[in-house]
Design brief:
alpha/beta; 228 residues; binds NADP nicotinamide-adenine-dinucleotide phosphate; Rossmann fold; single chain
């Protein structure tokens, strides 16, 4: 079976490497991006792959909903959803604005939840689906919630969403997990980061293609279980 995979924030950084990695595995990939031109440009150098560009702006509730519904109508049910898009506001608790907090919650929690609401019912009905939430060690209680507040709080909420849904989904072959890519050399991670975007994408691709006996409701880095 060819899986249809949607990756948000697929036009650059770790997300683009996920797009390429899933395509290499023979999946049909929906490259979600805010600007269609960025997505079209990003997929230019990927030859022989089935990659479709769809506009997904997690800040725009109506177009997000319309475009996910349209994508399902055109390309069929989504088997694998990777909630990868992310924003990093580095302001500390004294400086962080309400808008920055809201944006982080929108991109890391409300937006992913909106997409999940559209794709999960069909996954449950078919008893097949994989949802991968791209989180961060900076939002892990077990690692001290080290990130700046907008980022740490919203990634912790994304982790909570992962665990909550995994407990509530009554379909044993629908899996939802969170992962941290590690510190990756991208626009967000900066040039000192030790990992390549391709390395950062590996665990998400692995979780997206898990076997039926794979885990659900867990948190991973380097394909290893980590604590919330
Ligand atoms: N890099 C690291 O070291 C690191 C570490 C831990 C976790 N992560 C997580 O890994 C994921 C990918 O990060 P990255 O390093 O690849 O970051 P990146 O290079 O900055 O890329 C971020 C992606 O998210 C998209 N995005 C941002 N806001 C969006 C919105 N409102 N709607 C739709 N897309 C939006 C961006 O689109 P535009 O191009 O339109 O801006 C871009 O495609 C993020 O969730 C991040 O939190 C990264």
């Amino acid at each position: 079976m060819t899986s249809t995979v949607l990756v948000t924030g697929g036009n650059r950084g770790i997300g683009l490497e996920m797009v390429k990695g899933f395509a290499k595995q023979g999946c049909k990939v929906l490259l979600g991006c805010r600007e269609e031109d960025d997505g079209l440009k990003a997929k230019e150098d990927v030859v022989g792959a089935d990659i479709q560009v769809i506009e997904i702006d997690l800040n725009d509730k109506q177009s997000l909903q319309d475009n996910v519904v349209r994508a399902q109508a055109v390309f069929g049910d989504i088997d694998v959803l990777v909630n990868n898009a992310g924003v990093l506001c580095e302001d500390n608790w004294e400086r962080v604005s309400d808008d920055a907090l809201k944006e982080a919650m929108q991109v890391h929690v409300h937006g992913p939840m909106a997409i999940i609401r559209h794709v999960l019912p069909a996954m449950i009905e078919r008893n097949y689906g994989r949802i991968v939430n791209v989180s961060s060690g900076w939002g892990a209680f077990s690692e001290g919630m080290e990130g700046p507040p907008a980022y740490a709080l919203s990634k912790a909420a994304m982790n909570a969403l992962t665990l909550h849904l995994a407990r509530k989904i009554d379909a044993d072959n629908v899996k939802i997990n969170a992962m941290s890519p590690g510190w990756v050399h991208t626009r967000m991670g900066g040039s000192d980061a030790p990992l390549t975007p391709e390395e950062g994408a590996e665990t998400a691709i692995w979780l997206g293609l898990l076997d039926e006996d794979g885990p659900t409701g867990k948190f991973f880095r380097d394909k290893q279980l980590i604590e919330w």
